[in-house]
Amino acid sequence: MNLIFFDLDGTLLNSDSEISPFTKETLILLNEKNIAYTLATGRTMLSAKSILKGHDFELPQAYNNGVTIWDPKTQELTLENLLSNAEISSVIELADSQGITPFIHAIDDQHCYIYHAAPRHQVERELINTRYCHVKAKILPIEALPVDGQVTNISMIGVAEAINPIRRELKKNPNLLAYSGPAIEGEQFRWMDILHNQASKGAAVTTIKQRLRATNIICFGDSDNDLSMFELADESYAPENAKINLKEAASAVIGPNYKDGVAYFLRERFSL
Question: In order along the chain (272 residues), what is the average pLDDT of each group of 10 residues?
């Protein structure tokens, strides 16, 4: 059984962070040929929900870089490698030292939550007002974060001069892992996502592979958080726009995401 895992941003999604009509048609063709596919993304379930609506992703899916596995058929939520209170406190302290507001993401069987202190910069206010206010999450003050909250990850945004020192300090903590990259809010800004060091897409891919009894794993990805699934995949493909280290680790380099590279490759690979 072939089982395909898609990263979303920079891979399956186009430059507008959407599944293009051509890619949508390709997914339909995969379904018609009974070729199984799902996703492994750094996005939260909430941020991916509107993107995936109407695209028939029915198999277990990995979110938060593998911390969260969601099975839409059974409605089962699996959480692994959550952040401890000590780890959360250390991230908050580092963010505070650089004048950055951390956004703490938590989840339970009923709701998703985003906890944060008062925003300090306009870009943080815009993030709350333009993106977070449109997701079905409870936005709460950081003081409301419960001691036993199931925190999946902590995100933040800021200028590179503030984000980079935080990332350097996080590298000294063996329990934490941070991913960072350019933010869509402007070239001067960078985003950062922090999670437990044991969390990875690779671990989630292994869990889903075993659950579905798949034999041949095919992965698509473009960034550092995709390396762990590239390492265990039978086939791994990086779009032309991927980071150099991903292209070096891939079985092959395919067309860029902004030209439907994944979809064109799949049509050729599976004679769709």
Answer: 96 95 97 96 88 92 95 93 95 96 89 91 87 80 93 95 94 93 86 94 96 96 96 97 96 97 97 96
- Examine the domain organization and report whether 28 and 116 are in the same domain: no
> Angle at CA 169, nearest 5°, toward 226 and 187?
60
Tell me the three state secondary structure of residue 160. helix
- 113 phi-psi bin (left φ>0, alpha ψ -120 to 50, beta other): beta
60: domain range? 2-80+199-269
Residue 52 to residues 17, 24, 56, 137, Cα–Cα distance (Å) = 11, 10, 8, 17
DSSP-assigned states of every residue in 220-241: E--SGGGHHHHHH-SEEEEETT
pTM of the model: 0.87
Closest CA to 146 of 123, 113, 118: 113
Does 213 share its domain with 243?
yes
Rounded-to-integer distance, Cα 221 and Cα 251, Å: 12
C-alpha–C-alpha distance, residues 8 and 245, integer Å: 18
CATH code of the domain covering residue 49: 3.40.50.1000
